[in-house]
Amino acid sequence: MECEAFIGDKLSPNSSIVTLTTDFGLDDPYIGTLKGVILSFNPSAVIVDIKHSIGPQNIAEAAFVIGNSYRFFPTNTVHVVIVDPTVGSARRLVILETQNGTFIAPDNGLLSHVLEDHGKLILIDNDSNVALPFGCKAYWVNKSEYWLPFVSSTFHGRDVIAPVAGYLSSGIASLNFGEAINGLHYNPSSKPILGKDCITGTIVYSDRFGNLISDIPASLLSSITYPSFQIGERHITGLYKYYSEGHALIGLISSFNTLEIAFVNGNASEVIGAKVGDKIVVYSDLKDINNDDSIKRIY
Hints:
Elements: E1 17-22, H1 30-41, E2 46-51, H2 59-67, E3 78-82, E4 93-98, E5 101-106, H3 112-117, E6 123-124, E7 129-131, E8 137-140, H4 156-169, E9 180-181, E10 183-185, E11 193-194, E12 198-206, E13 212-217, H5 218-221, E14 228-231, E15 234-237, E16 239-240, E17 249-253, E18 258-263, H6 268-272, E19 279-283, E20 296-297
Parallel strand pairs: 1-2, 1-3, 3-5, 11-20, 16-17
Antiparallel strand pairs: 4-5, 4-8, 6-7, 7-10, 8-9, 11-12, 12-13, 12-19, 13-18, 14-15, 14-19, 17-18
Helix pairs in contact: 1-4
């Protein structure tokens, strides 16, 4: 199913938002110089920081963050995503055009969630590349005339991605930056598993409050009469509408529209000792659930 942008276009045709999602942190000059280069090529660009505290080299976290953020921006936004463990190598830098935004990133799986949102994915070439969903276009950023004159082998974000983002946000078409390509690297996201009497999911994100975000969609929980949850040896009972409705450890629907485990006025991750990648199991009487691509079945 193709996704739809939630927010309408609010900008003039001559200006554009550029978002930044990186693992650079804020202690070093990297983000400042990145913004400086973008503004050098488009002084009217509006730069928005989504997150710079992505774990170092954590491609999965960055893919989750951008995949759950881009829909809330105007559709003419340019989204820069940089987590680049193999910077300086032969890996590609790519532009992905969708009906809901334009993305520029290393071709290492950072755009996996975005690709999933735009249609059914078909593997090509090998087990790590997928064909572009219908309506999407992609380009290999290989025309050096759009880069800075000197390119550091350790900072392609500043010397290649930032100037291209500046040009893109000023209205220069994506096809100018390199040759068209028909597929991108893809890292499949986790999916909950539906058993006979439980649903097993995975913690896919933990925010700065220690809230644990799972991959179990709210639609599956609506089929459960009175749910209970287990992470490790901890059991949590009941599903609440908002934090202050409960106390201690609670389950509720997150702003990502999936199951979240929180500790009221505390840190669930620390209390439970749980982290991204840990399993979470939902128990109760499960009603019949129709065929849904967001789940796997093991019976």
